[in-house]
Design goal:
alpha+beta; Nuclear Transport Factor 2, Chain: A; 6-stranded mixed sheet; 6 strands; single chain
Length: 186
């Protein structure tokens, strides 16, 4: 009986510590799982929808109230608007590809630094095909809730793309200064 009491005196605190560790570690494990799930959702958008052209998956990834914010552009609202934007870029750049450079997840957000490239083969926003190749970099921030993207903020080198397509003069080329002078801007 003495051996059982002695064993129990060690066993009970050990079990209590183990239970405590599990309860303390559980939120960290859950948070880590959520971060990984959120990264997977952001990856699916770039890899499956953009790169693999699986536009029908947009409803699986975007929330009904999805909003895309891009500097200098009106917000894109809803999965249908998002799908139309992607379809227009894919049509203009049939070989368009995203490469994910970095993914950082914290809470309900994923920050993705990416590089995109493609060849301008069809009209885009009124610009006829130039057959020029472009490579641009950007950063997208995704807010994810309930396993879907609720909101996205995307900032990328639009001017660099236009310059590579030859529809905007390179800064410092002299042509930009001539255009500014014609417009009355110094």
């Amino acid at each position: 009986m003495h051996k059982i009491r002695k064993t129990m005196s060690y066993l009970v605190p050990a079990i209590a510590c183990a239970v405590l560790v599990v309860f303390i570690a559980e939120p960290e494990c859950q948070e880590s799982e959520n971060k990984n799930e959120n990264k997977t959702i952001a990856t699916r958008l770039l890899e499956e929808i953009w790169n693999q052209r699986k536009l029908d998956l947009i409803d699986d990834i975007d929330a009904a109230g999805y909003v895309l914010h891009m500097a200098g552009s009106p917000d894109i609202v809803g999965p249908a608007g998002h799908k139309a934007l992607i379809a227009a870029f894919i049509k203009a750049f049939p070989d368009h590809r995203f490469v994910i450079e970095d993914h950082i997840a914290e809470g309900d957000k994923v920050v993705t630094r990416w590089t995109a490239s493609g060849t301008h083969k069809n009209e885009l926003m009124g610009i006829p095909a130039t057959n020029a190749k472009m490579t641009v970099t950007g950063v997208s921030i995704f807010r994810i809730a309930g396993g879907k993207i609720e909101e996205e903020w995307s900032n990328w080198d639009v001017l660099g793309m236009w310059q590579q397509l030859g529809v905007s003069p390179p800064i410092g080329s002299g042509a930009d200064k001539q255009a500014a002078a014609k417009a009355g801007v110094e």
